[in-house]
Structures are given as C-alpha cells and as structure tokens.
Amino acid sequence: MVAYLARRFLTLLLVMFVMTMLIFGLMHAVPGGPFDQTQQPLPGPAMANVMRKYGLDQPIWRQYLNWLWALLHGDLGIPFEQPTMTVTGLIARAWPITLAIGGLTILVSYVGGLVMGCAAALRHNTWLDWLLTSAVSTVGVALPNYVVGFLLISLFSVKLGWLPVGGWGQPQDLILPVVAFSLYPMALMARYTRASTLEVTYADYVRMGRARGLSERRLTVRYILRTALIPLITIMGPNIPNILTGSIFIEATFALPGLGSYFTTASLHRDYPLILALVLIVAVLWGTCYILSDVAYTLVDPRVRLEGLSR
Amino acid sequence: MSDLSSGQPARLPHLTRRGFLVGASALSLAACGKSQDTSSGAGTKNALGLKLPAGAASAGDQYYVLPFDSTGASYKALDFYENVYSRAPLADQFNIPLVRLNQNYQIVPGAAGGWEQSADKNSWTFHLRKGIMWSDGKELTAADYVETLRYSADPKHAWDFSWFWSGVIKNYTDAVAGKVPTSSIGVKQGKDKYTLVIETEGPVAYIPSACLYTTPLSAAALHKYGSGSYNINPATCVTCGPYTLTKFDPTAQVVLGPNKKYTGPFKPPIDTLVGKIYAGGDMLPRFQTGQVDQLSVTPLDLKIAAKNPKTKALHLYKNPNDFEIWYTFFDTKKAPFDNVKVRQALAHSVDRESLIKSLLAPLATPAYGYLTPGYPFAVEDPLKPYTNYDPAKAKSLLAQAGYPNGKGFPPVKFYWWANAVSNTEAVVQALTHTWNSVLGINIQLQQLDKTTFYARMNKKPTEIQMGFVSYGMDYFDASNMLSVYKSDGRHNWNNAQYDKLLAKGAAESKPQARQEIYTEAQVQLTREAPGVFVFHLLYGYYYAPYMQGKALSKNKNGYDGIQWPGFGATSDSLQGLYVAQNKQKWPRPKPNGIS
After folding, report:
1. Fold of the domain built from segment(s) A93-270
2. In what residue span(s) does the Solute-binding protein family domain sit (chain B) (predicted)?
3. SS3 of B142, please?
4. Average pLDDT in chain A
5. B32–A161 C-beta distance less than 8 A
6. d(Cα B130, Cα B113) in Å, to the nearest integer?
7. Nearest CA in chain A to B278
8. Domain B325-537's class?
9. Predicted local distance difference test score (pLDDT) of residue B546
C-alpha cells in the first residue's frame, strides 16, 4: 500500500511539473498581459518600469525557473492585482471561506443524497420514490445553482426578510449558499444511490442471503449499501475538488469573498502567479482525491485490489 | 428491523411549521439587526462638529453604505498616486487636491485658495490655504505635493498613470524614463511653504483642470513607509481629509470613519462611509433589503424595479459620470476603411435615436460627436450634418467609394467585448444588422475577452480592423477626450491639421478662443469619421429615500445624483449629502463593524 501510494504521489508531482510548465506557456501565449487592460496604453518608458518591477522583462524560461525556485521555497509569489499581499496570504484568507461552504455542502448533499437515494430505492415504485427521484432530484439536477440562489434570495431575503441576502461574517450567512450549492450534488447523489441500490437489491447474492434467512437490516447495511457505495465513490472523486474550490456563481450570488471569484478574475487580469497557484490547488486536489478514491474502493469492497498490491 | 427495511416510511426529524417560523424569525433578527427608525438629529453636531441640517437623522445614523461590484477588478490602494486603475472603493478621501470640481462642473478652490498662470504661460502658481493639518500633526504644505509628484515619476514606483503628467510637467517624461532624477521635474515650492509652482513643457491652459488629480500623499509618511500603501492600514493611515481608515478588506468591506483631527475647510454631514464589496451577483435585492443605501442601475434593473412596489416609486437619478462614449473604430490604414467615404457611409447608416430608444433608454444619449453634452467645449449641432441618419446618403457614399449596393465590399470582422452596463451585445448586433441591411455589406461579429480585445486594439499596427469600444475622460477638459484621436494615439487615424488644432487649444488660455478651436477640431473629427460615434452612456442611480441633500439635485446641465468625480475629495458631493429621518420606513440594518 505504501509503495503504491508513494508511486502515485510521485506521478502526481511529475504531472504537476509538466502541467505548470504548460500553463505558464499558455498564459504567456494568449494576447494581453497583466498590465494591458487600460484605456490608454502606457507609454514605452512607463511600461518598461512596470515590467521591470514585476520581473516580466526577463525571458519566459527565466520567469518560469524563478517561479519554480520560489515555489520550492514555499513562496507562491505576489499577485499582480494585489501587490500588498502574497499569493499564499490571499489564498489563506479566501480559501477557508470556500472550504467552510464546501465542507458543509459536502456534508449536506452527501448525507441528504444517500438518505434520499436509499429511501427511494427501498420504496421502489411508491409515491416516496417518485417524490424523491422524479421531483426533487430532477429539479436539483436541472436547475443551475445560481438560479436556485436567486430564488432563495427572492423568497427568504427580499420577500420574507428572514435571512441575509449575502455577505460573510455571521453563521446565518451560510444557510442560503449551502442550500443552493448542495442541491445539485445532493440530487446527483440521490439518483446514483437509488440506481446502484436498486441494482444490488436484486443481485443473486442478496437474494441468496435473504433465502439463507439473513435479516433485512443486515442485508441492507452489510451487503446492499456497502456495494452500492462503490459507484458513488467514483462520482465523489471529481465532485469534491469542485466543491472545495468553490463555485464562482454561488460566491458571486451570495457575495462571499471566497476563492471561487479568483478563478475568473485571475484569468481575466492575466495575474500569472495567482493563476498558477489556483491551478496547482485544483490539480493537487484532483490528483489526491482520485488516489483516495482508489484506496476507498478497497476499504468498501475487499474484492477490489490496488494495482501492484496483488502481486 | 429498521424502518427502512421494514417497508415503513423513513422517520425524519420532525419540524413543525411553528418551529420553523420561530427559528427563521430568530435568524432573521440576528441577520438583519434592528431596522432603524432614525430619530431627529437636526441642529445637533456630528463627529466633525458640523451642525446637521433640518430633517437630518441623528449623528449616530449619519453613515452611508455604498455597493461596489469587484467583478473583474481587484483593489490595491486607496490613493491615486499609489495606483490609479486598482484603487479600492472610497479612495482619495485622505487628502485635499489643489482644486475641486463642483456639481456644475466648475473648477473651484480645494487646498489652494487661488492660482495664476505666469506671464510667459510656462508655469502655474498655486497658493495653499494655511492651517490644514495631517493627522500626524504636520501641516499640509507645498512639500507634500512636490514629494507626491516626484514619487509618481519614480521609475521604481512604476506608477500606472505616469502618462498623465508626461509631456505636461517639465522633465517629467525624462524622469519616468530614468534619464533625469525625479528632483528635476518642474514641481517646486515657491516663495514660501504655502506656494506651489508647476512648470510645464510649454503653455498648458488646462493645468487647473488637471490639478483635480493632485490628491497628495503625506511627504513625511511617504518617506517613512516608502510607498503610499501606508494608507491601506488603519494603524499607519495619515490623513488631512475628513475621514480616516477604520477597516480595509479589499474583498469584503472598506470602512472610513471621521478624522477627528480634521482642520480643513470641507466638513461633510456623514461621519462614516462604508464600501461594501461584492464579487458580482445581483445588487437590486441588496438595495431592496437595505444592505446598501445606493444602487447603480442598468436598463434591465429598471425593468425589474418598475414592477416592485417599493422601488418603482423611487426617482431615477441620471448623469454622464465620466462622460463615456461608445463608438466603432476602424483600422484607417487598410482597405476598405482607408476610404473616408466608406467611413462616412457607416456613420450615416446609424439611427442613433431609434437604437437608444429600443435598447438603452433612458440610460444613454445619442452621440453625434465624441464629447458628451455638458463636457467642456462639447458641441452638437455643428456635427449633426456628418452623423445624422440618412440611409440614401450612406448608400450614395458607399457607391462613390466603389462599392455600389455593397458589391465588392470585403467581409469584415467586427470585434467587441461584453459589457452589461452598456448593453454592448444588443448594440453591436443592432449596428451590424443595420449596416448589412442598409448598405448590403458583410460585417460579422466576433466577441473577445476584454484583455485580449485591448491588447489587439493597442498593438502597433493594430490587430483589429473594426471594433466597438468606449472611452471615459481622465481629466475635465476637451484636450483629454479629443486627444484619443491624436496622431499615433489610441487609433491609427493621423491628421496633422487636427493635431495642430489640439496643440493650439491646449495652449490657449482664453475660454472663447478655446471654444472656437475645439469646435473646429470636433467638426474635423466627425467629418473624417475615423470612428462611428454611437452613444454617450448615462449612469442611473437609486438612492434610499432617506438619502437627501443638494448633491442629489439637478445641476445646470440637467443631470442629477452624485456626479463625477463622486465621493472623492475632488468634488463637493459629500458636503451636500446627509441621512434624513427614515420616515418611509425603508429597511436599514446597521452594517457590522460601525459604531
């Protein structure tokens, strides 16, 4: 297991290296630089001063090596758009907000989705099944989260005046964004849970277990749910990094000063150090989540073997 | 047997309707705070010792919350001379510029009580008021302006607006290029510490207007901290304006409280300014629920607000803000737009009135020329013969250019970037449809992101054959806006006669003579049609009904609301604005972090 994990993480490091190099090249290849977007283009000497100040007057390979060297020393650089901060400081300030929203979203959506999916499957073809899968989860999948956000604001903030319209600083600020953000993953989770639970419910080994006189509780918890979790782990892999890095729509709708908004502004402003840092975060999260998914398979179903371990 | 496996419905925690309502109400109270029914403060004094006007709310309610949308923006500084394009909300409050702009767009005394041009017209002398103190106990003197302008020219500072004084202040261009020391620029103390002399590269008539942009940093603080960033930290903020920094969080909120050491001449009734920063989202609900006291509205907001019983009763304030024009520009060095008749044909094909009525009303006015009505030296009637809607004339001009009914006219890419405030998507679609149907030509739309658009437009030679773009003024004089079309400027239309007129206008001190020169320049620009001028943007605002004062009344041009330059020390708007008693019971939860 340790050797397997070490190999996977080393591969991840290599992927990171290649990817940052690629992103660095692409950032510089697109038209427009970080200091171009002004009404008046800066005159030559003024622009030269700016480029010198931010090290952009050096050849691109040198800029990349400088960035890499700094990264190896734990320094992600200075964001061009907020030079009074460091990229690390900016992320340290914004990411906890996104993580708080994301963490609660994962909790609400996954617990809610599992309960809904199981309930629907175990009450297959009843009104409860219809309500949970056809109504709630279809609406949840079909409605974009920013539309849900606007609806929630219109109802609970403007019309009823119960909850804040947006912002950050009090516990109640979390309620509407988490509900809006949870709806889609919860609906997705519910549909997958229902499908996989139904599939397992009619599997031969479950019927055999029932014939052997195993209790329904034991069958459900020990066999049905456990096996049904496997496809869910597959969809959790890519979902968790997405949720933990924030939704630009949710953060914009509810005015949350989280990490999500930086994904667009950094690109629009060609803020190279910030773009690289954000790409790194996402890539590391994705890589790690996929590795953890693979490990999770073996925990849920011992029949699954990690590559190399069975040899 | 579990509930799930027994075939019985799952038992979920039961929440009664009453329980839900009680919980939600508690949340509501906690979230919104107590909505204020402001008591009268008329006749009492605010934190700066100013007597509040009749009808004013109490001093504790004299705070004003403004929303700022940070989409596509990030905030680095609070001072003009630290960074211009990324200044945070409520910037430029910690100092007093030499001059200010009043509600009627007149240049009036600021820190300088008076000024005059030298006999040889190559310098200007400003006489500072005495007794304006910085919060660190030092007096505001000419040295603060001198050090600030030298700092702005320092190549190491790499100020993003250094073009502004280049070619204007003596030796400034060379200092920015590192060829001469910053101490050699033409800004110095005169006969005493209250006299500031600005030497120019030649006669420059518009220096007083340009001096709106002389919001100084404290020379002592500048030397101590090495940059103007000291003003984004409440502990190191040094101010000679009526406000001081209380909180600076560039992603959420900027709060300015009263500077109780203020000794300057301009005292605002409002003690606390709050800039709420939102990364996008819909501002209208934030205004309707009282989280902010002001709202900038788009045409779409107006439609929604008109259906709401609360907002539909509000007055819509309209003004041109930074006198922004939206126009189509051409690469005039290449066919087909190197032919003046082609450009004129396109100019005559646009029915500006109808376009505005259907897409932009009431937040735009037709652009018959480059300058917005109300802007210094702007004229309109002499330009209409070159820009009026006349499809027959447009077809005839196109035929004269060698493209009868559009035959032989090459396919053209028309580039644009999305801007919701200016509704550019609908406008470029309408323009393209008009040109293609009236003239029989083939113009195709191509959207770009803003950074790419500007990068390609500004390339020399330009990489955009035809594009839709805006320009808002930098300083309040025709020489600024009209210089966009100077040779080798933003666009590649070169005209020596136009350049001469601009040079002549910039040097001329007599207003009547300047008017004649700039009228001629505008006629020439419009006749040659290096661009098709489409509309001047008007900014629309709602204010909560308790926001009152002279600052919101109509000015002599008929524009109302807070005019450009807004709430900075560069205007008199804050002196004419106060919070009145909340008789309309408009919601007003007090924001966190203010006393």
Report:
1. MetI-like fold (1.10.3720)
2. 106-490
3. helix
4. 85
5. yes
6. 9
7. A255
8. alpha beta
9. 96
